[in-house]
Amino acid sequence: MRIAVTGKSGQVVTSLIDRAGMGIEIIALGRPELDLGDPGSVGPAIVAARPDVVVSAAAYTAVDRAESEEEVAFAINGAGAGAVSAAARALGVPVIHISTDYVFDGTKPEPYVESDPVAPLGAYGRSKLAGERAVIAAAPDAVILRTAWVYSPFGANFVKTMLRLAQTRDELGVVADQIGNPTSALDIADTVLAIAFQLYSAPETAPRGIFHMTGTGEGSWADLAEVVFAASAALGGPSAQVRRITTADYPTPAARPANSRLCCDRLAGAYGLRPGPWREAVKPVVARLVKEEAGSVKQKAGAVEQKAGSNEQKAGAVKQKETVA
Ligand SMILES: NC(=O)C1=CN([C@@H]2O[C@H](COP(=O)(O)OP(=O)(O)OC[C@H]3O[C@@H](n4cnc5c(N)ncnc54)[C@H](O)[C@@H]3O)[C@@H](O)[C@H]2O)C=CC1
């Protein structure tokens, strides 16, 4: 099975490459040959990839910057996503599109279900909602997966930021009044691969439409930070004390939903897929990041030693020169 995925370096695309097993080829398409901001580039790049399934994972994901670049966000997340689905439809292959909890305003007291009314709070959410609509308009049989609070060993994400900050700080203020479902991009990749296989092998019966897909269990950003630091400390990695703060203490250009929780029962019922508890899923990601950091510190130390060695060599050469002179 050949899966063309948009984006070359994002968390989800890298996780797909990481998780794809035997018999699955991931063709990662991104700039310059596929630029979502230039819809004319999308079709030819997807056709050239000769996919069996298309995964639309690339997006403009800078939530705060989108407030001042709404047009760019809309071009990429709205029209760009629509162009990806149109290309898949023209080829007659299924498309799986990734969307977000930020299509909701967070005022519902319970987890959101797929049919709840959407009301994004910010430009990023509005652009992703435009994307959902463009995807369905171009390919009514698309699968849309709304996910949330994505972290992974790759790219930029909250878990990596926490570990980086803990290298130099003993205490960190982290927002405790937004609740959501932290989701490993590795779990997203496993889910996408399982759905792609069903769409490919049983297109007549594979369920379509919008599905929520997150890690199981809920927590705040502060809870996530604490779980990260506990996992890291157990491995001798960086950790810090978490000071619980409120959204009001940490103003950002874009408003975020206070309740980001998504109910994932529809996906479990339709595809039999439900990722494990997020508190467990965090651990292997932290382990990978701590190991990588230790490796890169060692490498740096090795490089310094080598440099010192080469300085000594130089000194030796100078000495030799002096002696000869
Ligand atoms: N990161 C998160 O917390 C969440 C992400 N999502 C959605 O999940 C999907 C995957 O997100 P991540 O992997 O975390 O994103 P990411 O920010 O790690 O990667 C985004 C990818 O899109 C590519 N991209 C951006 N603009 C492009 C353009 N004009 N043309 C082609 N490629 C372009 C980037 O090069 C990168 O490869 C996105 O659709 C995002 O909206 C949904 C909920 C939460």
TrEMBL record:
The keyword Transmembrane does not apply. Its EC number is 1.1.1.133. Residues 1-289 form the RmlD-like substrate binding domain. Its cofactor is Mg(2+). Gene3D superfamilies: NAD(P)-binding Rossmann-like Domain (3.40.50.720), UDP-galactose 4-epimerase, domain 1 (3.90.25.10). InterPro entries: dTDP_dehydrorham_reduct, NAD(P)-bd_dom_sf, RmlD-like-bd. It catalyses: dTDP-beta-L-rhamnose + NADP(+) = dTDP-4-dehydro-beta-L-rhamnose + NADPH + H(+). It comes from the Bacteria. Pathway: Carbohydrate biosynthesis; dTDP-L-rhamnose biosynthesis. GO terms for molecular function: dTDP-4-dehydrorhamnose reductase activity. Keywords: NADP, Oxidoreductase. Residues 294-325 are annotated as: Disordered. Binds 1 Mg(2+) ion per monomer. Catalyzes the reduction of dTDP-6-deoxy-L-lyxo-4-hexulose to yield dTDP-L-rhamnose. Belongs to the dTDP-4-dehydrorhamnose reductase family. NCBIfam families: rmlD. This is dTDP-4-dehydrorhamnose reductase. It comes from Novosphingobium humi. The gene is rfbD.
